[in-house]
Every structure is written in C-alpha cells, then in structure tokens.
Structure prediction request, 340 residues.
Amino acid sequence: MFNVLTIGGATRDIIFVTDKGKIISTPQNLTEQKLLAFEYGAKIKSDQVYFSSGGGACNAAVSLSRLGIKTAALLRIGNDQNGTEIKNNLLKEKVETKFIQEDKKTGTSVSFIVVDKKSGDRVIFNWRGANKKLNTPTISPFAKGRKRGGWIYLTSLSGDWEKSLAKINNFVKKNKIRLAFNPGSTQIKAGRKKLLEILKSTEILLLNRDEAIELALSDKKQKNKNFNDPASLIKIIREWGPKIVIVTQGLSGAWVGDKENIYYARATSKKRIDTTGAGDAFGSGFLGGFILSGENIKESLKYAIINSGNVVGHYGAQDGLLTLAKIKSQLSKIRIENKK
Prediction:
C-alpha cells in the first residue's frame, strides 16, 4: 500500500561544473530575464563532473520516501545501464518500482547540466529518450494499490502529453485521487487553454516565477497586471481552478496562496552550489508536509523551504533531500509571513 504515485520523467544526469560562464541580464524579456553565456567556439573545461539520477518523478519519489511516506513511481526507462542505475537507486530509497516501464528500443533519458560555479545556477540540456513513450494507462492498478485518499504527484510529461494529461485527469476524477501538479516546460508553453481542465482537478500547483509569468501571459484577457508580483500571479492562476498555487523565486523565497491567504517564506541562507532539483525538492517537500501536518499550509511551506534549501547545497538533485527527522529539527527556524 502506498500514499503517493509520482508520474513523469526519469533521467541520468551528467553535471558539469564551470566558472567560465557569464550571466547576462535581459529584464526586457519577462520569461528569459537572465542568460548563461560562453565564448562562441571555445573549449570549456571543468574540474568537477558528477553523475546521478534525476527527473521529476524520480526526484519527488525519493524525497517523499525519505520523509517516510509510502511512494511509488510511474516512469519509463531504457533497457540500458542508465535505466538499471535509476531503478536500483529507487529500490535503495524504498520506492515502489512495479509501475516502472522498460523500453526495449529507446534509451533512458539523459540530461547534461552546466552549473555556474559562481552562482550555483544551471542550464539543462535534455534528451527525453524513453520519457517520450511513457504509457499512462498503467496508472489504473494504482487505484487498487493505494491507500484511501491517495495522491498523484504529476511532473513534466513528454511525447503525446495532451492525451496522457486527459487520461490522468479522468483517472483522478473517477477514483477521487488528489492531484499535485508540477508542469514541465512543454506544458507551460502550451498555456492556459491546454491546461485548463487538469488545473480544475489540481489541488496543489507548483510553479517557479518564470513559469507562472509565462502561464499568466498565455491568458490574453490579463492586461495591465504586475506579472513580476508573485501574489498577483497566484491570484490570476487560482481563478483557473487550483486550490493552492505555489510560486518559487529561488534566493528570493517562495509564495503560497489558497482562497483565503497568501503566505511568504524567505529562502534559507545556505550557500547554493547547484540549483538542480530545487523545484522538485520544494514541491515534494510541500506535499510531504501537507500530508504529515494534517494539511497545514504554513507548516507545509516550512517543509518545502527546508528541503529545497538543503538540496541546493549539494551537487545533483537527490543527495541533499532530507529525512523527516532532519526537517523537523529545523522547523522552528523558518518564519512564515502572511501577505494578505
């Protein structure tokens, strides 16, 4: 029996750390306000390279399992060494793997991640591989294996994602399963119109600020709004159906809003060495806190801030994910501000 099924990507991450990049500010572009640039034609060297498991569904599953929540993962890997290492890692982390699909023809997804050593920010180059062929109808056994009132934590989808999204939406409504949704870049680019039905079924929606801006801009009715204000973004997007909307801002902290309140928490002050997986750590930390605290939003925000704040102090998306005991030991240090 398990409480949460994570659905989405599984990747083999190659992390390349370098101090040779230059960060260029482009504030005139609301959805691309900073660029990481390198000399054209140059050979960029690194003294640090790491290999690890990644992908939204993998990262969230490991995170929730470390919090003591029974978790299963629905993802697709290739019949290769990368896929074997991802699956073995999930088994080691006590994640249920019976929903994992193995593709005989297409290899496991690979991400090449360039981390700017000076800021800890990163750029990800991703080949989706087997992720494109994820077969969502296999979620039906989850209705039998889950505990009553279980959750689906849905991350980025590839391939024929619109069809998959519709199937998942029908499934959660039919089986009264609760949905937390962290859409990927493809879904964000599709905009409000393509996501409206799944958003109506979403209880917790997780976005970073750039994603929230892009999503809000896709609604042509929204004019003369302050799209750089997270509270404004939360109010716009909540009107489309999600009960709780989260907007993260990296070093500037995170905002969470429901129908009554908007809360804000500052980011922890630990040095960031790699932001890879920070969003997954935040979203899964929030859901974990939501389940464990009896759906206390302020307490859930604390879980998320602590979990993501620790992840960015490690290279890779999973090494810094915390256990329940370690999160609980830091809860009293986090202050939540009511912004409404």
